[in-house]
């Protein structure tokens, strides 16, 4: 964004009014220009106007010209109109910062009379905070030397490309419910968020005083949530939707905003790159079951690259997949308000190397749902370490969950017998009209090898049998190990340096 | 308004004694033309033996003052048979009323017809003659019948009109066509009811002693508003009470399953709840604040001025989130009405006033509200439970109403001023056990609901009628402003997850909502009619115009309360304890989120104006064939100011509907065998979208989780390439065809059979979003058709034996087949989610149209001893309510078998005391709606048990 468009001039003839000429014209009437203010001041990157100049030339207007610091930047010919209006606007460049620009507006009539008015524009230093209020079309670059404020639900619409440089900090304004501020990458839009381990990209709230280069928030605790929305990436890959429709509206965006639709039939759809990104203090709730997650991935295609992502203190889920084919590598979710890792609608990708640190509000570390329509695809979740909390559950596999879950280590969960059924991993079933269990498709899938567990390890609370933690027969794939004596789990080095979870020391004890 | 009523009251009370004639008695009567049922102007009424008499005015009314005694009256009118009425008893200071005197046109050399005063009292109402001879299809009930059968209010009275059913004790259905297609008007003026989203006025607010008549028109004529299809109900209030009356009534209602129950749920509301309005207890804490502080602004510095303001607002929310169990009172009601007429310098004045107060309590136990969906497996024939809630709720509703009328009559003019004010408040408190099994989620919760709804309506009607050229011309004008409002202050919803009493996004955050709707409207009309002769028969030409203006402001503001790291005990009234609330020492405490700022699609203004004109001619082109042929023109422009949720579309008084339509109508009536008619009618009518429907509103109902989406939004699919809905909501145009045969017999007996057919062009229905089945939007769906047959029978059992001639059997049977052409998206959605072996048709039932309606009553009526007793049955066939989409199924109402008993008895010689005893829902049926899927067992959508209600009313005539 350094090279801001050098000159931007809008010349729109809003209205040209003819007045009938009388035969007895008086010769050599004067020309007048009105409507141009004498002075104005803006920041570099800012725009003055549009202002409307009104020209009166009873003898017939011949031309209208604008000079900037003595050089003509525009000339508009006229064909003898006796009055005319011209719109003018100017966007200051970085090079204009600290200068006074002189604009001269000259109108000349047919017999040579002319009038000139002068406008002095004082350009201040370039703003370091950019408030974004409109959707993103075309290519837009966000750079680390500025802080970007999301002034609403900002969507990279179809065809738009948003490039975010490493180290950029993006802050969402206050907003809740349908008014939550969020960044949405709609179907056909692209995001290139290329953070690095040294300079991650951070999405947070305006309440956060964090600056580019910092990892931990200087003023907000990691469990504060719901201050803004989150990041939603929506693609055109298939999903398994109720009623077998091909596209549906994402949670957290009201159905009237069609940029919230996801799903299609392009498994290899490309929504861009999303690397080394930390998303904090977000989550918004329109209604029950209609929330914004930290990172929402709706039918994102396999050509999209998502690696090294962190979600901290989100009011709803950490990362939630709704169908799609995208793979995600190196993810950490800390203090999720609901579930940490949540999958739905037959997501057909892989999550490899992840850490979940449950907080005091976290419900399920893993909440895995099955298909909702007739498309039966499955995903793989592997190489993870899950740190429990006193209210959290290891996992809930439900509604015909399918897929492979392997090499995952769980610890710090409560005893299910004394915590109202928390602290377990279960395959929950379906119930009839009276609430009685009538089936358990997840269990059937488990029995039939469609839902696969492999190499699970746990450090159980003292005296708790594996069968009461890993229920429905899943205990056969689990081993009880001493604390941090796990042989499988996440590779925590992938999170070092750029994630708040690592910087806070929360991962130190992990193997 | 209140002052005005008071002033009126004092004036009348002080004036009325001046004009009473204590030493003499008064004879008053009204004379009608038997043929047309219309009042006769200029009939000479002579008291035989005395040289005094009177001439009827344009209302057919006459009045004579005589000394007490028994008289005989002689009524004569050119080319009509003279009538002699004997046995007219006049007592000192009293009024003897002879309504319903009918004179027939001169037929033969018959001399005078003699009839006794007593017989006139029990004769059938003039309205029956109107009905019999009217060229349009109409029915009704009049003041004369109210006296005989003693119904207390309009809702009870109109049930006696065949083909009309009352929903929920309040709203009218005609031929099974509900609110969108049925309309209620007051004195011919379209008045918004207490619920401005409905077309109909709540009927039970009008005591019968202020009503002159209720007319139900089932076929359209050009002087009626064109936006009706099922019918129009017109409640006409009394202008000149025949005699001085003052009536006091007291009602008590008892429902064994609801009253004196110590588990009843309520909260301590405001001090004025018992009067039907809130005293400010429920005022929104952010009132008057332009820039409401948000949590994200203050979490960093809670002690800043903004932070302190935030904390103050948070603490101003009423901490009551759950009801308390207490004893439920029984229902109570009272009414007072007064009316009279008097003369000042030969000008007649009439006045009447009525006040109604009702305080009713309901307590529903084991109420269910569920959500079921279709399983994804097409071979699965059992619906999946998604959400279920089961619990109790208590409702206390208060209605306070006042009607006042003042009328003036000179020789050729009549001017009426009518005031109506209604105020109602309804407090609802519920507690439910909630289970969520939606898409694999599995949790249980305790749910608490508190709601309050306050409604008010004020209507003024100024109406003038002028008779020119001895009644040849009649000019009538009306001017009527109305103001109505609905406020739903502080709707509260809370859920605790079982067993740990935690609150989070999965179980739903605590929510509070303030809704408000204000509407002002103005109606003006001018009608002219000319009586003339066509082929020697009476003919009438009517023409006129009307203007309607309405303006509505709508606002919803809602808050959510994230709870941060707070833990709870499970007591709903301790959630907002001080130690839980956000503060500088509890930065992750409970806080509020105002979800309606900065963009609120539910803050909008709409207005409309409509110019209307008509011409209609009623004449007799051939012998025994009468016709009304007319055409009405209505322009209709609706404007909207508001924004969509994203703020990308901003409408500033943008025109969203612009119609000009002509509505032709033909009504023909062929009479034969003197008491039979054959009728045929055709008309074109319209049903227009409401203000709410033509908006960008997105209204979430936190209880059902359903979102209403305004009709201005488009919906597309397949990446925007396919338009499911274009956002261009249009009015529905309807063609109506009616054929009817009817036979009138003695004593108001009637037998009729009708066939009707209606075609709907672009009917509006609530349709679910394909991409979001929880969102509903009004859309024009494919074309619709309704074909029906209707049978009516009102018969005395006198034909079996004379001994039981006072027993009446009354029935109305309607059978309707309705059909809607599905939209492409609905058809596809149904195919995609079809069960194995299910054949998805391109057509389905029309939403809201009942397939059959049965009304039947068996009654005993003896006006001489003042006893009227009856048993009445009503049932409406399973009706499609919500159209299914995606994995959501259709929902249907389950027929509610309503069996009621009603007994009225008047006591004493003067019949001053009247008692009414009734039992509602004798069968104890439940009101239920179900989800319906192919080859699957129905599942409950909603179920409540209204119980059996016994009510006893005493009505005492003081004057």
UniProtKB/TrEMBL annotation, chain A:
Signal peptide segment: 1-19
Keyword list, A-Z: Signal
Protein name per Swiss-Prot or TrEMBL: Uncharacterized protein
Source species of the chain: Aquiflexum gelatinilyticum
UniProtKB/TrEMBL annotation, chain B:
SUPFAM superfamilies the record matches: Carboxypeptidase regulatory domain-like (SSF49464), Porins (SSF56935)
Top-level taxon in the UniProt lineage: Bacteria
GO terms for cellular component: cell outer membrane
Localization per record: Cell outer membrane
Protein name: Carboxypeptidase-like regulatory domain-containing protein
Secretion signal span: 1-22
GO MF terms, alphabetically ordered: carboxypeptidase activity
Residues annotated as domain TonB-dependent receptor-like beta-barrel: 509-922
The keyword Hydrolase belongs to this UniProt entry's keyword annotation: yes
Keyword annotations from UniProtKB, A to Z: Carboxypeptidase, Cell outer membrane, Hydrolase, Membrane, Protease, Signal, TonB box
Domain TonB-dependent receptor plug stretches: 132-232
One Pfam family linked to the record: Plug
Keyword Signal applies: yes
Family: Belongs to the TonB-dependent receptor family.
